[in-house]
Design a protein that fits this description.
Chain lengths: 183, 216
């Protein structure tokens, strides 16, 4: 598929497009029933992972904040503990993934690797918050299934991102645009 | 103003009612002001009352709020708290004691958590516009998000990567349409009534907080 001429001059900023994709995936995730409000598959983390190689750290953090706030506005959880869980979990995983990818280099760690690390970081922080705010010491009982779930979802999201980054023309176009801007 | 229009209580009409009478900013401010009474009231029954009230207020605005899910989530919080016993033993199941302290702590957390969720549902609407550069980015993303929702049928679940890629290319090149909620406000009179309702609601909640705090 050839890119449209308007796309070649990037009529909409990729940050806003990825932000919208975060909101869309949050909506899909919101419709999936869950036993506890802060348990998430993490679909909206896909654009966050893809953004690591596309944006500066400042723009990346803007996208992370946009994801957390937008998700809270869509699901109506801005004033609740759910927002705190989302904020903590997203920031822990986003920072961990960004630092790892930049420090080790994208040749040495794939999206699958950072996906798993990100999910484990996110779930670990959420377990800690659940310990403090909701369950107390009983949080130890939810830790094993949550970490296992994180491992599985992180792996699946990582596989998806790895394939998307290789096949997507939109992603390749934005990467090239970034390189052109840098050179 | 045709009041009969609002007597049929299907979700879409209740949602339209919210859009006509309340601005998202007013709802947001009233929500902010109601956090304190909900979180810091010393009385559990007052928090339970607020939970029920915000559930009704969310329902009136056509928000999705399932009592079944709320009950399931609350029950799971209470059960997890009961796993670490403390306080007076209420009953023993086999060798395991169910204690009053753990039960009340679980109930308090469950009611507060669900109350905050209902408060958020009642007072946060997707047309909320935040200030500054970040607010502009959020607004732009929400505009593209609305386009994405309109084109969601183009996502093929048998070819997720290819179809999402085509959609992103399409979205990045289209010029954004203005969403319905971004149109200038024409119903200023109704919005004023909505603002008065929200001010009264917030005042009453704060008065009730003080009454419950200082009455024996």
């Amino acid at each position: 598929m050839d890119l449209p001429t308007s796309m070649q001059s990037s009529s909409k900023p990729p940050l806003a497009v990825l932000g919208a994709l975060c909101l869309f995936l949050s909506t899909i995730e919101y419709l999936i029933p869950k036993p506890l409000p802060f348990i998430r598959i993490g679909l909206a983390n896909i654009p966050i992972m893809l953004a690591i190689d596309l944006f500066s750290f400042k723009s990346y953090i803007l996208l992370v904040i946009l994801k957390v706030v937008g998700q809270a506005i869509i699901t109506g959880s801005l004033f609740s503990y759910v927002f705190l869980f989302s904020l903590g979990g997203t920031f822990a995983s986003a920072l961990g993934m960004y630092v790892l990818r930049k420090a080790i280099g994208k040749q040495n760690i794939s999206f699958i690797g950072i996906g798993i690390i990100g999910a484990l970081l996110s779930n670990s922080l959420q377990i800690l918050l659940a310990w403090i705010f909701i369950f107390g010491p009983s949080a130890q009982f939810i830790a094993p299934p949550m970490l296992l779930l994180g491992l599985v979802t992180g792996l699946l999201l990582g596989i998806f991102c790895e394939s998307f980054a290789k096949q997507s023309q939109w992603y390749q176009h934005e990467l090239e645009a970034l390189h052109r801007a840098g050179s | 103003m045709n009041w009969r229009h609002y007597t049929v209580l299907d979700r879409e009409q209740r949602s339209a009612f919210s859009l006509r009478f309340f601005s998202s900013y007013d709802l947001f401010v009233s929500g902010m002001l109601c956090i304190f009474p909900l979180v810091f009231s010393p009385h559990l029954y007052f928090r339970a009352f607020l939970l029920f009230y915000f559930y009704l207020f969310a329902w009136i605005q056509g928000k999705r709020a399932s009592l079944l899910i709320a009950t399931l989530v609350s029950s799971s919080i209470v059960v997890f708290n009961l796993l670490v016993p403390y306080g007076k033993v209420l009953i023993k199941i086999g060798e395991f004691p169910l204690t009053q302290g753990a039960f009340l702590a679980g109930l308090e957390k469950a009611i507060t958590l669900e109350g905050l969720i209902m408060l958020s549902k009642a007072t946060i609407r997707s047309d909320l516009q935040l200030p500054g550069t970040f607010g502009a980015l959020v607004a732009q993303s929400f505009k593209i998000f609305e386009e994405l929702l309109a084109k969601k049928k183009n996502i093929d679940y048998r070819d997720p990567i290819g179809s999402i890629d085509r959609l992103l290319i399409e979205l990045a090149s289209d010029s954004p349409e203005k969403p319905e909620w971004a149109a200038p406000v024409r119903n200023k009179g109704e919005r004023m009534i909505g603002r008065i309702i929200l001010v009264l609601q917030t005042l009453i909640i704060w008065i009730l907080l003080f009454i419950s705090k200082y009455s024996k």
